[in-house]
Structure formats: C-alpha cells, structure tokens
Write a structure and sequence with these properties.
The protein is globular and about 50 Å long. The chain has 6 helices and 11 strands. It has a 4-stranded parallel β-sheet, with no helix packed on it. The protein has a 3-stranded parallel β-sheet with strand order 3-6-9, with no helix packed on it. By secondary structure, the protein is α/β, with parallel strands linked by helices.
Length: 243
C-alpha cells in the first residue's frame, strides 16, 4: 500500500501559538503605558452602620487584627491625623460622626452647625463642649444617643438652645448646662415625640419621660428649680399618656 503523506503543520509564523505571547512579555508594555493593577478598596472595620461616616478615608492603623480609618481607630496616638480629618468634615459641612472615636477634647465653641449634628454611638475620651447662641439653628438637631462618654462632667452646653428629645438614650445628669434655653413656649411634648418617631426611636414616650426626669435631676442639683419643675411636669404628663 502506498504510504500516507505526512501531516503538514502550518509555518511557525502562522501558528496560533506564535500569536499568543506569554503574559510576562506583555507586562512591560502595560508598565510603559503607565497602567498599574488597581488596589483593593479599603473598608474600615468599624461598625457596618457607621461606615458611611468614613467612606473614602484611607487605612490608618490596625487594632486587634482589624484595619481602621483614622476616624474610627480606637487609640489616642492618632490625635494629629484625627484633627485633620475632623477639620475636613467640618469644612465640608459633613456632620455625621456616628461611631467616631474622639481621642481628646471635642470643642465646638462658636461653631455653627448648618445641618443635623449626629454623634450617635460616638466615643468621647475627654471634654465635649458646645457653646454659642448660633450653634444650633432651627433646621439642626443633636443626636447623642448611645454615645460612650468617659467623663460626663466634662460635657458642657453654654448659651445654646436645646430640645429635651436630644437627650434620650444618654444620661445627662452630670452634664453642665450654663445659660441654656429650652424655649418652652415654642416646643411641645407632641412635637418632641414626632421628632423621635421620625428618627425611628422605639418607645419614644417612655424614653422622653426618662430623659426629662434625668434633666430635672440635673437642674435640681444645680439649683435651677424652675427648669426642674418644667421637666418634672413633662415627665408626669408623659407617664400618664402611657397608661
């Protein structure tokens, strides 16, 4: 039988393998174009509900095996970097400080908040002060719920207008109130309850009654008896409404 002709292979230049350069050969070309592999997006290991506070913030330091941004890192050694990050937020009128760890005194004397100031679940290791008649305007609010305050007697309010519902889920009995106004003629129990309901606070009447009793204790301790009487009245009225 005649032998079958040998199988002819395509010339090397036409071979598909010839067109496929190894990856290593392409890497220098990417480098020449200035292309670099994208770095993974940093996600702060603070509480998930607080991550909107530090979106875009870079990694600062690791603590107990977790990576944190400078706002949520729980350590006093971050003071200088923290001050810069805090100033950046204030200048941007970003007043969301949920879960932020304040290493030193947080002094907002003379600062005017143009929107709601949220410090929910923040940690304060030193002084916290608000001062100035323009600190909180009609369109602003203060949220201190569940904040962890190491030195309650260093929390002060001076010459500001406040609302009772701002002090639910926080113990204000040792706070310092100097020349503050509660604007009793302009506020009402129903209005304060509506504000708490808008914030989805559970059991708003019970919690507001607790806050009023604690504010009354503060006022009595500091000889502000007329103010204490008003808070006691609100607390009793709220208690009746729950029956």
């Amino acid at each position: 039988m005649p032998e079958e002709p040998p199988l002819l292979l395509p010339p090397a230049k036409d071979s598909p393998a010839a067109d496929a350069e190894p990856a290593a050969a392409r890497e220098p070309e990417l480098a020449e174009l200035g292309l670099e592999p994208a770095e993974p997006l940093f996600v702060c290991k603070g509480d998930k509900w607080a991550r909107t506070v530090c979106e875009g913030e870079p990694f600062f330091k690791e603590h107990e095996g977790k990576q944190y941004c400078v706002l949520h890192y729980p350590g006093k050694e971050k003071s200088a970097a923290f001050d810069a990050a805090l100033q950046k937020k204030l200048e941007a009128e970003d007043f969301n400080f949920r879960g932020v760890w304040f290493p030193e005194a947080a002094n907002f004397t003379g600062f005017e908040f143009s929107a709601a100031a949220t410090f929910r679940s923040a940690t304060f290791k030193d002084q916290l002060s608000f001062s100035g008649s323009e600190s909180f305007g009609n369109q602003t609010a203060l949220d201190l719920q569940f904040s962890r305050i190491d030195k309650a007697d260093l929390v002060s309010f001076h010459t500001v207008t406040l609302h009772p519902h701002w002090f639910v889920n926080i113990d204000p009995r040792k706070f310092v109130f100097t020349d503050v106004s509660w604007n009793w003629q302009a506020i009402s129990i129903d209005g304060e309850i509506q504000s708490l309901e808008a914030e989805k606070v559970s059991s708003p009447r019970r919690l507001l009654a607790i806050a009023c009793r604690q504010l009354a204790e503060n006022a009595e301790t500091n000889n502000r008896y007329e103010e204490a009487s008003q808070f006691r009245y609100w607390a009793m009225d709220l208690a009746r409404q729950q029956k």
